[in-house]
Amino acid sequence: MAIDEGLAARIRDVLGTARTTERKMFGGLAFMSRGHMFIGIAKEALMVRVGPEAYPAALQRPHAREMDFTGRPMKGYVFVDPPGYERDADLAAWVQAGLAFVATLPAK
Q: Number of C-alpha atoms within 13 angstroms, CB side, residue 74?
């Protein structure tokens, strides 16, 4: 499956010099910090790991929905549809939300 290279470039721009890696996962592209996925691209959706505490609020944001690959929602992760990250400020907010959560986890 081809990923949206334009979206990947936009995420890289938001990250700037942050120490992250990229890995093909879930049929898309995942961005990792300290060994943890914090944001990714799956088809046209953005996958964001917001964590269990921020999960309910994240689901209330426009164009966000439960992340569900197997028929069971993955708590702490949301999908964001394209209108929800169309503006650069919205994309940056999602990227920062993912980075902030994985910063609370021990490095792998």
A: 12
CA 44 to chain centre: 12
What gap in Å lies between CA 30 and CA 37, rounded to an integer?
6
> Phi-psi region for residue 95, left (φ > 0), alpha (ψ -120 to 50) or beta?
alpha
Q: Which residues pair with 49 in a beta bridge?
A: 77
Write out the two tokens for 64: 């966000």
What is the block-wise mean pLDDT of the chain (108 residues), using blocks of 10 residues? 87 94 90 96 94 97 91 91 97 98 94
**Residue 45 to residue 4: CA distance in whole angstroms:** 10
| DSSP conformational letter for 107 | P
What CATH class is the domain 5-102? alpha beta
